[in-house]
Structures are given as C-alpha cells and as structure tokens.
Amino acid sequence: MSDIATIPRITRTLLDGVTGSEVAITTTAPATGRPLSTIPQSNVADVEEAFKYARAAQGPWAATPAVDRARIFLHAHGLMTKRQDEILDLIQLETGKGRLHAYEEFLDGTGSTLYYARKAPGLLRPHRRGGAFPVFTQTRELQHPRGVVTTISPWNYPFALSMDVVPALLAGNAVVHKPDNQTPLSSIWARSLLVESGMPQEVWQVVLGDPAVIGDALIDQADFVAFTGSTPAGKAIATRAAQSMTASSLELGGKNPMLVLADADIPKTADMAVRACFANAGQLCVSIERIYVDRSRYDEFVREFSERVSALRLTTGLDYSGDVGSLTSDKQLQRTSGHVADALARGARVVAGGKPRPDIGPLFFEPTVLIDVPADAPVLHDETFGPLVSVLPFDSEDEAVALANATPYGLNASVFSRNVRHAREIGARIEAGTVNINEGYASAYASHDAPMGGRKQSGMGRRHGSAGILKYTESQTISSQHVIGFDPSHGMSADVHVKFLNSTLRVLKTLKVR
User: Fold this and answer.
1) How many other CB atoms sit within 10 Å of the CB of residue 420?
2) Rounded Cα–Cα distance for residues 31 and 171 (Å)
3) pLDDT reported for residue 501
4) In the chain, what's the furthest Cα-to-Cα distance?
5) In terms of C-beta density within 10 A (0-12 exposed, 13-18 middle, 19 or more buried), how is residue 168 classed?
6) At 53, is the pLDDT very low, low, confident or very high (cuts 50, 70, 90)?
C-alpha cells in the first residue's frame, strides 16, 4: 500500500488534465462514507474545447509510425507494474471493492495494454488481399484512424475499462474520455503515466460531468463512440449517434447464467462459483446471477456453495485481509435489497447472507444466495448488479439451455462439467458473446486475443482481439489493374472478350485460385 496521506497530492496531479469550469463536486469513499476528492465538472463549452485540442493533436499523432506509438504504451506498462500499489489504493478508495478484486482489475487493464502494444503495429499495417485476377489485379487493404473517439467508461471497473482508450490511441485516434464522476482518479491515473512515457497529452482529453449536461455534446462531435454501461443508456447513445451516422461500440448489461451439469465436480464448482458471483460485490457485467444445477446434484451444490458464501469476510481494508468489499453507490444497495425483499415475498428462501451490513460500512450487503425463486420474480430477469445469485434445478440439458437463453441479455455464461468436449457443445448453444468452461468469466474475458462482447440486449461491437482495435479504424481498399482489364482490348470483340474471361475463370477454379 502507498501512504494514504499522499492521495490529495495524487488527486491534484491527476486532475490537472481535466477540462472543467463548472462548480466542483465532492466524492466519498463508498466503504466508509468519508469525503475522498474534489472533482471539477465540465460543461458543453469544455467539451467543445476538448474536441478542439484533440482534433489538432490527432493528425500529428496519426502520422507517428505505429511502432513508435506502441513503444510509448510498452513503457507505460512497465510504470504501471512498478506503481501497482498506488493504483490499487485508488481503485479501492473510489469503488469500495476488496483488494484482490482490485488486483484482478489491475491485471486486466495492464494485460490488455501489453497485448495491444505488441499487436497493434502488425494489425494496422497494410495487408495484401486477393485481387480480381491473380497477378493482374494487385489489392491492398489499409487501416485509417477514425479521428476523435469518445470513450465513456463506468464506475465499476474504472481503471480496466478506461483502458479501452488504448487500442483507440494506438490506432492513431485522439480520445475525448468521460469517466464516471464517482471514479475519475482510477480512470485517469493511466493517462498520467502515458504522458510521462511520451504520449502527447492533447491526444487524450478528459472531461467530467453529468451525462444530462454534456452527453449529447460528447456524441455529436465524435467520429466514433465507445460506451460501457447500462442497456438503457446504451440504447440512448446508439440512437443519438445514428442521427449523424456515427459508428458506436456498446458493452451493456447482462443476466448471466451458469449451468452445472450432472457430472460436475461439485466442490470445485462451488469454489469457482464464489468468485464468479461475488467478485467486486457482484458489480461486474459478466458476473453470474443465475445458477442452474442438474436436479440430481442440486442439494449437494446448494450445501457446498452456501457454506462457502457464508464464510466470506466483508472488508473495508486496503489490504488482502478480507474477501468482499462494499457496493459503490446507494442505488446499487437499494436495488440489491429490493430484489431480495421481492423474492422473499414471492416465496424464495435465503440460504446465505440476505441483509445489509451498516455495522461494517454504509453500502455493505452480505453475499446472498436464494433458492426456491419463482419463475416470475424480477430477480431472475432483471440485472441486479450486486452480491446476489439465485440457484435453481433443471431436469434435462435441453431445459437448462432454454433457461439460460430465456433472457433479453446475452453477455456471458459458463458451463461446468468433467467432460470438457460436451460442455463446449452445450456452451455453443447458449446465446452469449462469451462462454466459459469450468470457470465463471475470467477465462474468456482475460483471453485478450479473442473478441469479447454481447449479443441481443447486451450490446454490439467487441473489445479485445483484432476486432477491439480495428473497430477504431476505417478500412480502405486500394486496387490497381495491370495488363488485362475488364473491357475488351486490342480490337477484341465483346463475344471474344466474354469467352476469354470465362476461360480464365475456369482455369482459376481448376487451380483453386481464390
């Protein structure tokens, strides 16, 4: 841990890069309720100024060779690992999460940065493509930056999700970034290290404020919008962006299922399910909120799982002494409490947790497991985004898949079985962007070389992998024609020209030339 007395100094240093002229607000530490930092607020004029500076800087930045841009991010990655405790403290203070969960966030943010710093030059270089005629048609695909990207990142994983700016910047774009008001320090800490590593500070502009005040300006002036947050907010952003034909990428909510098949190792599955459900107090878009267990193993799983959940230690400490931290806002506390109360009123039962813990901190709620939840209970259909999971039995694997898919969401899922091949077959039938086998969410999410994103109401577009950087580019095809063309030449009649082309196509097919 770093000395917490240094946080005010860190705050002033980070906020030097924020464009804000409105009255500042004071944030509080969720775990304790104590004042944490004073945050400037931006207005529409501030947003316009941020875009002006970003656009002026974007051209020279795009002209910088991709390998030189990547070198800056590689250096920043080294600084992040050296100053790990500093960012872990900031994450914990702003979100209230436990330190192990903060470290998990740190691993994701730094891991994705390292991945793109290594891969970007190769992904962005011109690529040869098959032409209309081999040899005679020479075709290249180029990737151009879109311009200025608006990135809007949420409060639940403020460091890791703010690192979505990394592929945008590596692609040659400038960024206007709006972190959440609750967690701006964690979000812009990385910016200070990138500037220290050689990134021009103008290419990453930061604004803070109420979405109702500056949201439209952020969308209207962007060349691309990247948003992570709730499904209603994502729909509003997509609608606004569509008015100017601005492309967008949206990672939205989820009601993620876990299937426990009859041959699963129940003790190991129960161990895995604890983190899958309660990492960051359940405030994770890919966390599990519904567990379906083969009826023959249901009682065993409920017993094993509830014992482990009941043993979890709630913590306010900036160390590894506890297991689960605080919720981040009163809104999440009320939503979790409401879902529990409604389920109990409908006949559900609590087998672990079930109540708030104001004796520990103002926003703590015990990790909670519900059983006997009726099918019409909102807790089975609406995203809770808190430390709450429902466990239900199923009688056949077809029923389990149908239950998993009975949701408007499609972000993440998991399948537990000793037969990995069969589990993969079941997973392929689940309507989700990522499916984990014998893991809750981390195996797919942390595979930075593979795309991650949602289906149905869980969003559009992908982060990670080649898709995660190429979405920030406009592809262009440049093709040159040589010797023979598409019109009759050298006095050739149309009939002879057509016969010649047909003969050429038959030869290409025989040679299996694409």
Assistant:
1) 12
2) 38
3) 79
4) 93
5) buried
6) very high
According to DSSP, the residues that pair with 288 across neighbouring strands are 256
The pTM for the full model equals: 0.94
Question: How far is the C-alpha of 8 from the C-alpha of 29, rounded, in Å?
Answer: 13
Q: How far is CA 401 from CA 241, 294, 395, 432, 457, in A?
A: 35, 12, 11, 11, 18
Q: What is the pLDDT of residue 3?
A: 44
Q: Please state, as a whole number, how many other Cβ atoms lie within 10 Å of the Cβ of residue 43.
A: 18
Strand partners, 325: none
Of the candidates 301, 299, 279, which has an alpha carbon nearest to the alpha carbon of residue 289? 279
Q: Tell me the average pLDDT across 329-353.
A: 98
CA distance 91 to 106: 9
Beta strands in 252-306 (DSSP E): 256-260, 288-294
∠ at Cα 174 (93, 230), nearest 5°? 50
CA distance 73 to 171: 12
Phi, psi of 295, deg, nearest 5: -55, -30
For residue 491, what are the CA distances in angstroms to 119, 161, 481, 484, 487? 50, 63, 19, 13, 11
**Per mean pLDDT, which range of 193-197, 271-275, 372-376, 496-500 is the poorest?**
496-500
Using pLDDT thresholds of 50, 70 and 90, give the confidence band for residue 503. confident
Q: In order of start, what are the domains of the chain with their CATH numbers? A: 4-252+465-474 (3.40.605.10), 256-454 (3.40.309.10)
Q: How far apart are alpha carbons 339 and 326 in whole angstroms?
A: 18
Q: If phi over 0 gives left and psi between -120 and 50 gives alpha, with beta otherwise, what is residue 190?
A: alpha
CA distance 468 to 116: 9
**pLDDT, average across residues 157-183:** 97
Question: Is the torsion defined by CA of 184, 190, 195, 199 positive or negative?
Answer: negative
Q: What is the dihedral of CA 420, 423, 428, 431, to 10 degrees?
A: -140
Q: What is the pLDDT of residues 30-48, one digit of tens each?
A: 999 999 999 999 999 999 9
Q: Looking at the annotation, which residues are catalytic? A: 251, 285
Could you tell me if 41 and 22 are in contact, meaning their C-beta atoms sit under 8 angstroms apart? yes
**Is the pLDDT confidence value at 259 over 50?**
yes
Task: Look up residue 48 and give its two tokens.
Answer: 């316009």
Average pLDDT over residues 443-451: 96
What pLDDT is recorded for position 13? Answer: 64
User: What are the DSSP E strand ranges found in 434-472?
Assistant: 434-437, 455-456, 459-460
Joined together, the tokens standing for residue 121 give 């030059």
Q: Which of 355, 46, 315 is nearest to 205 (CA)?
A: 46
Amino acid at 36: L
Interior/surface letters 481-492, b for 16+ CB within 10 angstroms, e for the rest: eeebeeeeeeee
Instruction: Note the pLDDT of residue 2.
Output: 47
